[in-house]
């Protein structure tokens, strides 16, 4: 018992370039969801810690905001290199903290590295429109300026990846950042802070740890914070938007999703079934773009359900510590397994559970890969985000119904369309209201292209030059000549 306790590391948070405990001295337990064991402790922040971080970020802003783009770019490149050098260690830590397969967690780090390198380049490309004389005797120009202090609030499903998506564009544009990782998965953000400590000037990046309930309002409402960027649940986003509205703060909201996968009768069914095995159950389905809602053509529906079932039954799931061949790990917490179990149980009466539908009796937050066939379009399992390893399959009658069902949810983050007919693919891509539409693929992300939603999936874009622009304000300067 004593040995176990001694092995548990207590982390500190990162404020003003230094590592400190919480003002209260209190800590939070960090749990490995694959075996329910405590693996670390982190500071339990309070409003006082938010004040300290806001003060540090505010103090650092003038110099960082006025640094040349080349200087900011250089710092981001160094951060990317430092992250790359510790990629495997960071991936293993992430696996332990989030229940992800080890290989998948390690593979996420190069994606963050690429992202930071992209934003290092983007820092030097940010530009206003060319100057012109719109009124006689006056020259106008447009400047894009950083907002100031940005509060970046990240979710638990891709902790290091989301930390990268948040800090890259914000720092590139010249803002200083207070990053708040999810209290469930704070560890890799604290390692990122360790790397940043040797690279970024004090206060440019601060990482504080605490629950949304304890410090969310203090952070979002803090008078020094000029912009709030959150990736999380739609209800969390709505709450944050209300608090931010008090001071008319800028917002960047990356919220929930319920991606439709429209499979026409002429699609390559083997390719679709393989893709859904991967992207419907990747990260145990805890993905805002997960291929979770299949809308399949009338002629291929039966064959497709059968092919997908074969694929899904072959998924090797378990505790990532059991071996490198584990394809699907645990959910993030027992509370998430409760949520998934509840939604599947409520779906049972109105649909067929083709495979899965079982919460295994073992340690860890597990749920078996599940397929639900034939649910009603208005049912909870079709309308709401499960955020677990559950895929539904519905049979549509014609293109019009496929489009109507795809759009008939409150979310609009990502979708895919599968067909051999290029004209149909483009027609449907235009008709559906989602921020990303993949054709004959799903889940592919690149640093150069924007990611972000329509409708209740939020507004603002991650990745790409659009993200950098989101973290700036436009200023018009007019000179009498
Ligand atoms: P969550 O909403 O529970 O938490 C997200 C973050 O918000 C956490 O850091 C949390 O501590 C913080 N938070 C919670 N309440 C807060 C409050 N009142 N004030 C300020 N901060 C608060 O989300 P989650 O469960 O960590 O992540 C899963 C959700 O994230 C899913 O809905 C998923 O779709 C969404 N997500 C969206 C994207 C995207 O790009 N759109 C990407 C990943 C995840």
Structure description:
This protein has helices spanning 2-7, 47-66, 69-85, 87-98, 102-122, 159-172, 187-197, 212-220, 234-245, 269-279, 301-313, 334-347, 380-383, 399-407, 422-431, 464-470, and strands at residues 9-10, 13-15, 18-20, 27-32, 37-43, 132-135, 138-146, 149-153, 176-180, 205-207, 225-231, 250-254, 260-263, 293-296, 352-355, 370-373, 390-395, 411-412, 414-418, 436-439, 454-455, 472-480. By secondary structure, the protein is an alpha/beta fold. The strands form six sheets. The protein has a seven-stranded mixed beta sheet with strand order 15-16-17-14-13-19-20, sandwiched between helices. A five-stranded parallel beta sheet has the order 10-9-8-11-12, sandwiched between helices. The chain has a three-stranded mixed beta sheet with strand order 1-5-4. It is globular, with a radius of gyration of 23 Å. It starts with a helix and ends with a strand. 52% of the residues are buried. The mean pLDDT is 97. Nicotinamide-adenine-dinucleotide binds at residues 153-157, 180, 182-183, 211-212, 216-217, 220, 230-233, 236, 239-240, 254-257, 288, 385, 387, 413, 451, 453, 457. The site of nicotinamide-adenine-dinucleotide has 31 residues, from helix 8, strand 11 and helix 9.
């Amino acid at each position: 018992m004593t040995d176990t306790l001694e092995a548990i590391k207590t982390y500190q948070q990162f404020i003003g370039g230094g590592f400190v405990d919480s003002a209260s001295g209190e800590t939070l337990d960090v749990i490995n969801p694959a075996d329910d064991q405590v693996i670390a402790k982190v500071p339990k922040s309070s409003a006082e810690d938010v004040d300290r971080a806001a003060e540090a970020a505010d103090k650092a802003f003038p110099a960082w905001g006025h640094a040349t783009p080349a200087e900011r770019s250089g710092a981001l490149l160094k951060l990317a290199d430092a992250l790359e050098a510790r990629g495997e260690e960071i991936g293993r830590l992430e696996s332990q903290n989030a229940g992800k397969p080890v290989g998948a967690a390690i593979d996420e780090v190069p994606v963050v590295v690429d992202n930071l390198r992209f934003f290092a380049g983007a820092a030097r490309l940010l530009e206003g429109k060319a100057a012109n004389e719109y009124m006689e005797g006056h020259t106008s120009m447009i400047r894009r300026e950083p907002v100031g202090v940005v509060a970046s609030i990240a979710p638990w499903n891709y902790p290091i990846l989301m930390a990268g998506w948040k800090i890259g564009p914000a720092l590139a544009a010249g803002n200083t950042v207070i990053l708040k990782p999810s209290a469930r998965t704070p560890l890799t953000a604290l390692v990122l802070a360790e790397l940043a400590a040797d690279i970024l000037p004090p206060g440019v990046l601060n990482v504080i740890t605490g629950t949304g309930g304890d410090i969310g309002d203090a952070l979002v409402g803090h008078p020094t914070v000029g912009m709030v960027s959150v990736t999380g649940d739609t209800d969390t986003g709505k709450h944050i938007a209300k608090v931010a509205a008090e001071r008319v703060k800028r917002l960047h909201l990356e919220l929930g999703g319920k991606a439709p996968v429209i499979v026409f009768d002429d699609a390559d069914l083997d390719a679709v079934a393989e893709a859904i095995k991967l992207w419907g159950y990747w990260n145990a389905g805890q993905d805002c773009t997960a291929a979770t809602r299949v809308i399949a053509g009338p002629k291929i529906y039966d064959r497709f359900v059968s092919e997908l079932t074969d694929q899904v039954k072959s998924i090797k799931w378990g505790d990532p510590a059991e071996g490198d061949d584990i394809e699907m790990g645990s959910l993030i917490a027992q509370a998430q397994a409760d949520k998934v179990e509840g939604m599947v149980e409520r779906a049972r009466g109105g649909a067929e559970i083709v495979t899965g539908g079982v919460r295994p009796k073992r340690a860890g937050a597990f749920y078996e890969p599940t397929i639900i066939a034939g649910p009603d379009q208005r049912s909870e399992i079709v309308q709401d985000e499960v955020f677990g390893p559950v895929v539904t399959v519905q049979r549509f009658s014609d293109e019009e119904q496929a489009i109507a069902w795809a759009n008939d949810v409150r979310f609009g983050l990502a979708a895919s369309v599968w067909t051999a007919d290029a004209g149909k693919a483009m027609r449907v891509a235009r008709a559906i209201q989602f921020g990303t539409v993949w054709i004959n693929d799903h889940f592919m992300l690149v640093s150069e292209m924007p990611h972000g939603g329509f409708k209740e999936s939020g507004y603002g874009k991650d990745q790409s030059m659009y993200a950098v622009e989101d973290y700036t304000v436009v200023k018009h300067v007019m000179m009498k000549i």
